[in-house]
Amino acid sequence: MRPESISLKQRRELVIRWSDGQEMRYSAGLLRRECPCAHCLERKQAPAEPLPVLQPQEAAPVEITGVQPVGNYAYNICFSDGHTTGIYTLEYLRRLGRQEPPPG
Ligand SMILES: [Zn+2]
Q: What is the pTM of this model?
């Protein structure tokens, strides 16, 4: 399965149209939360810290600042909080897209 088109809606939402005709939408928040990089996975698995304090850049709504293809199997997505190490494979994006309610 391949993306036929990929676009950003005002940096808040990524829209991918797949080769099977399905259109999937990904909010910036979802992509940031589900970032598959080693750093984020480690952070998710770590026990929650008591009374975490939000940094100002974490409290602001996150935006997508860039999407770069990686080879022909993945995209590197950059966020407004400065995070740029997430590599989202096409397979992972398909899986993530199915977690969102279908459009319309
Ligand atoms: Zn990450």
A: 0.81
